[in-house]
Amino acid sequence: MTREPITRREKLGFGMGDAANNMSFAAVVMYLSYFYTNIYGISPAAVGTIFISMRVIDAITDPIMGMIADRTSTRWGRFRPYLLWFPLPLTVSCILMFTTPDWGNTAKVIYAAATYSVMSLLYTAVNIPYCSLGSVITDDNQERVSCQSYRFVMVGIVYIFLTTCVLPLTQFFGGGDDATGFQITMTGVSVIALGMFMFCFANVRERIVPTQEQRRSFKASLATVARNRQWLIILAITFFEALQFFVRQGATIYYAQYVMDLGTTLISVFMTAGVVASILGTATSGFYTQSMQKKWVFCYSSLLLAAVSVLLFLVTGTSALLMGLLFFVINYLHGIGAPISWAMMSDADDYGEWQSGEKNTGTTIAGNLFFLKLALAISGGLTGYLLSLGGYAADAAQQSDSAILVIVLLLTLIPALVNVLLAAAIWAFKVDDRMVARIRTEMNTAPADRDDNGYGDLAYDSSGR
User: Fold this and answer.
1) I need a surface site. Which of 99, 179, 267, 446 has the fewest CB within 10 A?
2) How many Cβ atoms are within 10 Å of 8's Cβ, its own excluded?
3) Are residues 152 and 261 in the same domain?
4) Dihedral-angle region of residue 10 (phi above 0 means left; psi in -120 to 50 means alpha; beta otherwise)
5) Distance of alpha carbon 442 from its chain centroid, rounded?
6) Could you count the other beta carbons within 10 Å of the beta carbon of residue 31?
7) Count of domains observed in the chain
8) Cβ(256)–Cβ(144) under 8 Å?
9) Is 77 helix (H, G, I), strand (E, B) or coil?
10) Are residues 226 and 79 part of one domain?
11) pLDDT in tens, 311-351
């Protein structure tokens, strides 16, 4: 295993990379739909078509980008150079995306679709190589969790900034002109993200190299990755974890406003408290994995999250303080599992390399990111459909009982059910910490000490046992 220590500065640099990514991605999730409909004047149907169309494109471009990254060879490594080459074009595309030329409606839709598509493609060109870095910085179990913890703490800080500062800054810079305010604010956000990308590039190193050069075709690499059963399980884990998170996130503001009857200021406090709780969970994740295998920490925290969600459903409508406390605990438990899930992705990649002798980090990460995006799309559709079914009325000061029930279910029982499925998927994942250590030992064994298949006497069967 790689024993070169990972400094705090490098871990901070790694975290900065995803903080920069989320300056783009989280801003899109939080504000772009509102910007398009309320400020730029595009119909909601057109916006929905733009967003869904890009997810279809992602299904093609994500794996292609992963395979391109796997085959990249530079003096900076396979994945780092993309943090040097593409952040500046990404910055420009984000600024253009929040720019509003005064054109006709059809031209506006075309402009929005074009700038959003370019931004999404450039984001893919940066984000997939960045996420792949987590597998090649180190192969030490604890260090992988620690690096991912730094990453998610930094992302949490970005979310706090975006939720608390973007709209006030838009009003300040716009002086009543929201279009100008958004453009100036997002220009500043994008430039800050560019600096974060450069910090990440300058401070992170790739230490894990493939056991052999990549010479196979794209099709052959896809076939190899598809035979990795543990990676297929990781896809399910990624999907379920993202789905429960996005469904709960989408329902949070509705729950605070219509169920807890909070005012604007307290809604902001409620949502920010959830982000803070998630950061605390992420920051303490490594503490739990020191005494228990990370797989089981993730599994048990997911089951506890499901139990607390059920409890929140039962106490909803009683004490606002108790409801807020349980919401805090739910987000804390989610924070514990977030860095572990990404460390397990690296473990599945190691298993695939051991199984086939071929390193496909970019391709495997691309698959995970696509399933994360798929969960985002499904969560949005599920939330919208159920709210409509419950009779939700956007212009109503008070919602009907059926709409309130849907909102409560979206925040509690539906994520709870998904978390049970998540725990089952984690239980099925066979690449535990001990197996990862033995796989790394075997792959680092000198060729003369390996058997005819290229592996030593520590081999596991293909089921992952």
Assistant:
1) 446
2) 10
3) no
4) alpha
5) 31
6) 19
7) 2
8) no
9) strand
10) no
11) 999 999 999 999 999 999 999 999 999 999 989 998 998 89
